[in-house]
């Protein structure tokens, strides 16, 4: 909650770039941004939307030649988390290190298997499979970017809910004890909030 009693949410890029989520706001990335901002304009007294600057920079790369709505920064507050004097439980760090070590081991086994399967006539196909399997082994479910960490830190500092379709980010937000809002439900929640009730009643 902020000083006015409004609920706070921190948005991740995947809200706009994940096809399954973006379609609930308008389809492609630019339309999804416009759709969310259109809803958010109507509930700024009930819900405060935040986004770390690093996430906005990432979103810009997905927009390409398209631009953000003119009032985007007025509706979605850009705020970087305080990265100094952050207190992180030791168990959190141990679990992260253990997770990374296990993923490296899985990646090694994937590479070994690919080498054993390679045939002169199927090198390119084997490389393609290796890339897919290696990426899945090392990155799926991992907190693997500074943008993801910014979302988690900012949500923790604001006592805000995380909205993300990134499995790794969501998993580590859960470990940090943060509130989560399923991104596919966000459009419906905001629409209902425009028409009825308070943010607390809608689970925000």
Question: Helicity level, as a percent range?
Answer: 55-70%
Radius of gyration equals 20 Å
Known CATH architecture of the largest domain: 3-Layer(aba) Sandwich
Number of E strands: 4
Give the CATH H-level superfamily of the largest domain. Answer: 5'-nuclease
Total domains:
2
Distance between the termini: 10 Å
Low-confidence parts? none
Q: What value does the average pLDDT take?
A: 83
Biggest pleated sheet? 4 strands, parallel
Give a verbal description of the structure:
By secondary structure, the protein is an alpha/beta fold. The protein folds into two domains: 7-86 and 145-195, 3-Layer(aba) Sandwich (Rossmann fold), CATH 3.40.50; 90-139. Helices cover 56% and strands 8% of the residues. The protein is built from ten helices and four strands; from the N terminus they run E-H-H-H-E-H-H-E-H-H-H-E-H-H. The chain has a four-stranded parallel beta sheet with strand order 3-2-1-4. Helix 6 packs antiparallel against helix 7 and helix 8 (146-158) packs parallel to helix 9 (167-175). The longest helix has 28 residues, at 90-117.
């Amino acid at each position: 909650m902020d000083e006015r009693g409004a609920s706070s949410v921190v948005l991740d890029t995947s809200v706009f770039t994940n096809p399954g989520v973006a379609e609930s706001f308008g389809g492609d990335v630019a339309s999804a941004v416009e759709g969310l901002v259109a809803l958010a304009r109507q509930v700024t007294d009930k819900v405060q939307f935040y986004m770390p600057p690093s996430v906005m920079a990432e979103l810009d790369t997905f927009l390409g030649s398209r631009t953000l709505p003119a009032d985007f920064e007025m509706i979605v507050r850009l705020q970087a988390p305080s990265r100094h004097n952050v207190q992180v439980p030791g168990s959190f760090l141990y679990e992260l290190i253990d997770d990374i070590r296990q993923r490296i081991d899985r990646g090694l086994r994937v590479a070994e298997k690919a080498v054993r399967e390679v045939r002169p006539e199927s090198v390119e196909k084997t490389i393609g499979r290796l890339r897919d399997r290696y990426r899945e082994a090392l990155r799926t479910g991992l907190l693997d970017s500074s943008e993801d960490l910014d979302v988690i830190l900012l949500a923790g500092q604001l006592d805000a809910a995380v909205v993300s379709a990134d499995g790794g980010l969501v998993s580590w937000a859960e470990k940090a004890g943060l509130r989560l809002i399923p991104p596919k439900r966000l459009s419906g929640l905001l629409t209902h909030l425009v028409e009825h009730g308070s943010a607390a009643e809608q689970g925000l």
